[in-house]
Amino acid sequence: MVFLWAFIVGGLICVIGQLIMDIFKQTPGATLSILVVLGAVLDGVGLYEPLIDFAGAGATVPITSFGNALVHGAWTEVEKNGLIGVVTGMFEVTSAGISAAIIFGMIGAILFKPKG
């Protein structure tokens, strides 16, 4: 059942993104930004963590999880270090994922030739 709910929730997040592009005629970049902000807002009001508990990877893999990670990291660090935690928390939580994306992107660029 866990896999089914992950598939359904992850798919619904993707459907929301597709609807934003199709109905509201947004670019992919704008759609990604909207989904990141949506994940951040949902975490800010306390709704994204229960979604993660329910759907697992269906809620942690899509781009909305990045917004969740930013806000969640900021709140956690604010509780520990005060107001400076707003800045440091976002970078601490997301740095591994961003670093991995940069490193794997670089490896992909070195190993493969683009078709042009």
From TrEMBL:
Transmembrane segments: 6-24, 31-48, 54-71, 83-112
Record keywords: Membrane, Transmembrane, Transmembrane helix
Pfam families to which the protein is assigned, alphabetical: SpoVAC_SpoVAEB
UniProt name for this protein: Stage V sporulation protein AE
Organism, as annotated: Pelagirhabdus alkalitolerans
